[in-house]
Specification:
The structure is a single chain. By secondary structure, this protein is an alpha/beta fold. The chain has six helices and nine strands. The strands form two sheets. The protein has a seven-stranded mixed beta sheet with strand order 5-4-1-6-8-7-9, with helices on both faces. A two-stranded antiparallel ribbon has the order 2-3.
Length: 235
Amino acid sequence: MGEVDAVILMGGRAERLGGIAKGDLRVDGTTLLERVVAAAGMARHRVVVGDAGATELPGDVVVVREEPPFSGPAAGVAAGVAALPPRPGVAGEDAAAGDAAADAVLLLAGDLPFVAEAIPPLLAAFVGADAARADGAMIVDETGRAQYLTAVVRRAALDDAIAAAGRLEGASMRRLVAALRLVDVALPGRATMDVDTWADARAVGATAGEADGTGDGSRSATGAAPGPTTEGAST
């Protein structure tokens, strides 16, 4: 299938979690963001968009921010793709031979602790898809909900979608990928579980403690200080 790059979004305000750096929540001693970055380990280049918090990332992982901050997932994807090596000949740019753009981009949310289980079937579906009829593949959870941030898209098609979308501030992923032909990959179970609330955190066994599982109990998955009940758009 050629090379794959990865863009990992960590750009929400986590208001339903009291505004913490959501990626720092830990499952089995490892932060959510560490788990997603590791799951994308096959990627040639990995870009995290948003707040990396206190998570220690590998040295080759680039961290950027969409402008303006918190302007939504579509803007985050565009910022992440802009931080990847360009496709040769696009906008007059030529990448070095060893730093050319990958054939496809893996799009992932940074709050998916078990996404490693979704990536193999996702990539298998992508490889098996007819390139003339499909721009990529996307996970669909057991309720039938499209998981736009558990997807892989051909780089050229994604570049075209970003260019055609116009102003992306506040735009949803649904709008960004509307013109893309994505193969649905049905995947029941925990692979699509994300963490938007403390109830979600409890469901995946996440805590806000240190690597040994200890920490400030007031910011563990058992509860949080009261805060706003609305979250930035994630789909």
